[in-house]
Structure formats: C-alpha cells, structure tokens
Amino acid sequence: MDSGYKYDVVDAVLAEQSANPAASAQAVKQLQAWVNRKDWSTILPAFARCVRITRDQKQTFKVDPKNFAEKSEESLFKALERAESASRHAGSVDDFLNAFCSHDPICHRILRQSVGHGG
Q1: Which residue would you say has higher pLDDT here, 5 or 107?
Q2: Element at 11 (helix H, strand E)
Q3: Which of 6, 24, 53, 61 has the fewest beta carbons closer than 10 A?
Q4: Residues 93-98: contacts with CB within 8 Å, 24+ apart?
Q5: Burial annotation 7-35 (CB, 10 A radius, 16+ → b, else e)
Q6: What is the pLDDT of residue 101?
Q7: Which residues, in sequence order, are CB contacts of 74 under 8 Å at separation 6+?
Q8: Looking at residue 1, what DSSP letter applies?
Q9: CA-to-CA distance for 64 and 44, rounded, in angstroms?
Q10: Which of 12, 6, 11, 14 is nearest to 32 (CA)?
Q11: pTM of the model
Q12: pLDDT computed for residue 112 by the predictor
C-alpha cells in the first residue's frame, strides 16, 4: 500500500481490522489525517496513557458515582457517558477519536492531578 500513508499508520489499522480491506483502507485514510493534525502530539500521549493505566486489568469494573471523591471524577464520568452514547460506526477512526477527544482536556487535568502536578 504505497499511497503516501505512513507505514506505522497502515500497521496500526491492519493490526486491529485487517478482515475488511475496504474498511481498512478508509481507516488508514482517517488515521493518517489525525496523525497529520497539529494537536496529534497531545492526543496520542493522552490516549496511550489511558491504555497503559488499564492494559493489565482482566475485568471490567462497574462505576458507581456515589464513590467519587473529586468533582473532576464526576466530570470525567459525564464526558465518558456522552462519548459512549455518541453515534459511531464500527471501525471508524474518526468516530473513535472524536469521541475520545471530546473529553481529552478533562483527561489531561485528572491525569496531572493524579501524579501530583496540580491542575
């Protein structure tokens, strides 16, 4: 696939959705557009940090808002609910990253607070 797309973009898409070539081609196009954005250097680390924090979890936990200790936890949970309820198409990089970015500033603030950097 030598259409001007970065090899790591193609590899990332194929690692997740290689069963459908047409959808993969569309996802490569979308991901390349995201990678070319000026704010990609903040989007990728924010997403990667969330993945690293949860990667080793073997189970899914139910969130109980009654257990929130901070107002920021409530804000993040509300942003997550909005993102999860947004209409998305399976395999759409645009839909996925738009949903993630809708709460990205909240994620940054909470992650800074969680490591004692204030925010």
Answers
A1: 5
A2: helix 7-17
A3: 61
A4: 93/13, 93/27, 93/30, 93/31, 93/34, 94/30, 94/33, 94/34, 97/34, 97/43
A5: eebbebbeeebeeeeebbebbbebbbebb
A6: 80
A7: 65, 68
A8: -
A9: 28
A10: 6
A11: 0.74
A12: 61
Token pair for 47: 């997403």
Asked if residue 57 lies in contact with residue 43, where contact means CB atoms within 8 angstroms, the answer is no
For residue 12, what are its two tokens? 């990332």
pLDDT > 70 in the chain, percent: 84
The first and second tokens of residue 38, run together, are: 């000026």
Q: What is the DSSP letter of 60?
A: P
d(CA 92, CA 96): 6
Six-digit token pair at 100?
A: 């993630």
Q: Dihedral sign, CA of 68, 72, 76, 81?
A: positive
What's the token pair of residue 61? 């936990």
Q: What token pair was written down for 95?
A: 């839909």
> Which letter does DSSP use for residue 117 in this model?
-
| Tens-place pLDDT, residues 22-64 | 999 999 999 999 999 998 988 888 888 888 888 899 998 899 9
